[in-house]
Amino acid sequence: MTVDIAELVRTRTRHPEAIAEAAARRRRRPLLGDSGRLMIVAADHPARGALGVGDRKFAMANRADLLERLCLALSRPGVDGVLATADILDDLLLLGALDDRVVMGSMNRGGLQGAAFELDDRFTGHRPEDIRRLGFDAGKLLLRIDYDDPGSLNTLESTARAVDEMAARQLPVFVEPFISRRTPDGKLRNDLSAEAVTRSIAIASGLGGSSAYTWLKVPVTDNPDDMAQVMETSTLPAVLLGGDIGDSAEDQVAAYEKWRGALQLPTVRGLVVGRSLLYPADGDVTAAVDTAVGLL
Q: In this entry, which stretches build a coiled coil (predicted)?
């Protein structure tokens, strides 16, 4: 579909209540369908200032283009839903693209990419009460832990309270944990070794007063063969995240193979992938999405 930005702006200007009205009439569905698997397209990167895909520094900066790619992805068979921040989900509601789809609100976006306070990742996105009020289906939060950065403790504590608040509303929350550290030049890097991913899963699984509604959103380890042992760390259901896999067709194929193996593990229930499907190296969103769906 072609997105009419002028019409979206006109509606936002003259009828801002139309967003809540669209949320109220949205046709909902269960989190899991008959397959018991999840395929979620992620588009919460821009709110963290993370606009790049591979070597394309501002690939996600054109909102009309991003919305068109999202609508195309959401129209494909086997795609269950979308993860995004309020601005993008509001646009998708106005476009009527969220009927019969799982809608996941992105909760903490305060740790801006490249900022000195990146690890003090405060909850500046959807609150649990917003997710409930809008009739959305789940929330997602990012938990990066650097043992050398005190800001991680603030994020850890606020994450635990968010888990509590989501459980109190019987809303699933997807926790994306990493052990992270800064390079000598100050850039934050996530450690994808088996030891680090194991430790991050153990920490995330124990947050809050109940794990009943907690899911994990985990990366594939540097060595994919380590995933079987790593995923033995928790009984919480998990989905795999995509991340920035590179900017070539070869990188894309390699990522698919990593996901394929990990999807066979008993706690892994699906995929949450964004940039690599919305901005594939060959530009073919339909093929990229359909290939990922086929892995499930």
A: none
Alpha-carbon distance of 197 to 195, in angstroms, equals: 6
Q: Which amino acid is at 79?
A: V
Q: What is the pLDDT of residues 222-245, one digit of tens each?
A: 999 999 999 999 999 999 998 666
Confidence label for 191 from pLDDT (cuts 50, 70 and 90): very high
* Cα–Cα distance for residue pair 194/226, rounded to 1 Å: 6
Q: Among 89, 90, 88, which residue's Cα sits nearest to residue 63?
A: 88
140 pLDDT band, cuts 50/70/90, is very high
* Mean per-residue pLDDT over the chain, rounded: 93
- Domain containing residue 179: CATH number: 3.20.20.70
Contact 138, 239 (CB under 8 A): no
Task: Identify the domain containing residue 272 by its residue range.
Answer: 5-294
Closest listed residue to residue 234, CA positions, set 195, 193, 206: 206
Say how many domains are in the chain. Answer: 1
